[in-house]
Design goal:
With 352 residues, the chain is α+β, with helices and mostly antiparallel strands. The chain has helices spanning 6-18, 22-33, 38-45, 51-90, 109-123, 137-140, 179-197, 240-254, 302-307, 324-332, 339-342, 345-348; strands at 127-128, 134-136, 159-164, 170-173, 205-214, 225-235, 260-269, 272-282, 292-300, 316-322. The structure holds 3,4-dihydroxyphenylalanine. Residues 176, 178, 230, 269, 271-272, 296-298, 319-321 line the site of 3,4-dihydroxyphenylalanine.
């Protein structure tokens, strides 16, 4: 066997070894076994030889070619292995690294209060109802015995919404949850009428309506968006005494304290007569001794009962409206209402 082509094979091996990338390797390959490569040229040269010479020289060239192709395949594999290895290195996971923790969320302190209020009143047989935040002028005021141009309307700095209702009377962002008294009763009026038709006594109306309310107001104790929870209890014989019992019970459960005094201070609201402001007083703790206003209340005005579609001779009872934001501040000792709505997680995470 001739050694004539060994240097070519050795040259190819060296060139392949020098190639550091697949592209460089393909270039090196072209110089040997490509169309104009060394081996290809040698093959072409066979044409001029005799049959005998063709045989021996052809076999030798072929052997060289096979050796080059084997070297090429080997180098290709080596480059592919190296590529894979460096990719694995780059994508390596350090399993000892601590993971990114997603902290569990929590309810907003005012939501916690809302839930608490709902639970306590539900346990006293109250329904819980939701109402619209964009409310008609009639529901917000007129139905509550507070007609247009009545001076009592100035008790609330209302946001009016720039769309007119069908009757040309503006809508507003409800300044209180009181419109829900009439709305809720209207929603259930058929149920009441059906009961009466069947000869049953009319069911009592016992409901709370928590939700967002709006006023043009902003300082440490007022926010343009705030919360209220309305309460309504109407029956044949529901009195102020019941209001006192229900609200006292509620406050003591809410604040988890029997050491709590309540005061009903005479006041005015167009939709109740008589009306009272409800104040509470803690007997111990940082707020001890101070009277703190937590709700407005009163016996539902006969005109409001009429606007509900009911007979004020037969449906007597009370309503109240309290401020869950205020209750939250008192319960947790927060002095600035704005903290609730700033969205600062350092503040909010304390209630988790
Ligand atoms: N709606 C009143 C307010 O926002 C609070 C209120 C007072 C509600 C007396 C009542 C009530 O239901 O009877 O100031």
């Amino acid at each position: 066997m001739t050694q004539e082509f060994d240097p070519i094979v050795a040259g190819a091996r060296e060139a392949f070894a020098k190639a550091g990338t697949p592209a460089e390797l393909e270039n090196a390959k072209a110089q040997y076994v490509g169309k104009a490569g060394r081996i290809t040229e040698l093959m072409k040269g066979l044409a001029a030889l005799s049959v005998e010479e063709k045989k021996t020289r052809g076999a030798a060239i072929n052997q060289a070619k096979q050796a080059i192709e084997a070297a090429l395949a080997e180098r290709r594999q080596a480059l592919a292995d190296a590529e894979l290895e460096s990719q694995l290195q780059a994508e390596a996971l350090d399993v000892s690294l601590p993971g990114r923790v997603r902290e569990p969320g929590g309810l907003h302190p005012v939501s916690l209060t809302m839930e608490r209020i709902e639970q306590i009143f539900a346990s006293m047989g109250f329904d819980v109802a939701d109402g619209p935040e964009i409310e008609s002028d009639w529901h917000s005021f007129t139905s509550l015995n507070n007609p247009p141009n009545h001076p009592a309307r100035s008790m609330q700095d209302t946001f009016y919404v720039d769309i007119d209702g069908d009757d040309g009377i503006p809508y507003n962002l409800r300044p209180h949850t009181s419109p829900m008294q009439v709305r809720y009763t209207h929603q259930h009026i058929k149920r009441y009428a059906d009961a009466v038709q069947r000869g049953e006594p009319m069911p009592e109306i016992r409901v709370i309506c928590p939700g967002r309310t709006y006023r043009v107001d902003s300082d440490a104790t007022h926010s343009p968006m705030f919360h209220q929870c309305e309460g309504l209890w109407l029956g044949e014989n529901v009195s102020f005494k019941d209001l006192k019992v229900v609200f006292t019970d509620f406050c003591r459960t809410f604040f988890e304290s029997d050491d709590l005094a309540l005061r009903f201070r005479p006041s005015f609201f167009p939709f109740t007569e008589p009306s009272a402001e409800i104040d509470i007083q803690f007997q111990s703790g940082p707020l001890a001794g101070r009277w703190l206003e937590v709700a407005g209340s009163g016996q539902v005005h006969p005109q409001v009962v009429r606007n509900m579609g009911l007979d004020p001779e037969k449906h007597i009872g009370f309503a109240f409206g309290m401020g869950p934001d205020r209750l939250t501040m008192l319960r947790y000792g927060v002095s600035d209402l704005r903290l609730f709505f700033d969205g600062d997680v350092r503040f909010l995470r304390q209630f988790r």
